Amino acid sequence: MKNLKYYLIIAALAIGLICLGIGWYKEHEKTSAYQLTNQKVKDQILTGAKEIARTVNSKGAESVLLDITKNHTTVKNVDRTDIPDIVDTAAMALDIRTKQLKEVTYIAAKYKAENLVLKAQLDSNRKAYYTFNGNGLDLKFTPPYDTNGAATADFTGRLGITIAKGNKSKWYAWKDKNLLSVSSDSPYFTIDHVNYIGFDHNPALVNVGASIKTNYNKITGIGVGPAVNIKFGNFEISGDYQYYPKFREFVIGFGGNLSIF
After folding, report:
1. pLDDT score for 42
2. How far, CA to CA in Å, does 56 sit from each of 176, 189, 190, 191, 205?
3. What is this structure's pTM?
4. Which of 251, 207, 202, 259 is nearest to 229 (CA)?
């Protein structure tokens, strides 16, 4: 009987340890999944442009200034963006491959007009209809002729959207700030948000160029002649065939250059 009591205690401890182990394992799985999700979010390429300023001119038209300095990646990382479908659609619209894209801009906006003052007019049957025309908006509203009829409305909106991109640098900054401006000429157009992504393309492994080269120093004087440059990544070699009037002869020259910035 005494041995049975010990066996029961050992069995209870074993069951408790098993339950504890299962609980720890489940909690560990939850933590790992959470960390993995956070890592995926962290690794996602930034596409949402950061808004810096929003202004409205005297005519009510809006302009938004955005910072897109960090909105760059390589084409192979398209799947890590939150707009892969938009990128693919942009490539299809240009009839090119995705890897040939340079940049994609997506603008989410709304066209909204409120409290419009309509002008009453009469048609050929002396029935009233109402119109509005201004700021690129044409609207015609025709009420029902009787209680069983339906009202109709015709709407046409015209607007111009200007997108400008440029760099802004400050004397104390090492890097330029890339800016994007989106503006409209319509007071009814409001920008909600902008997605932008610029694709960095690797330069060609080898570049070959030809030029006419001139140089001068105190010993040889002025030299002029054809030159050929071959660039391998950051390393460049060049050769030239220079004529020096001071010596009245052509001289072959070679050189190399390594870019460190």
Report:
1. 46
2. 27, 11, 10, 12, 47
3. 0.58
4. 207
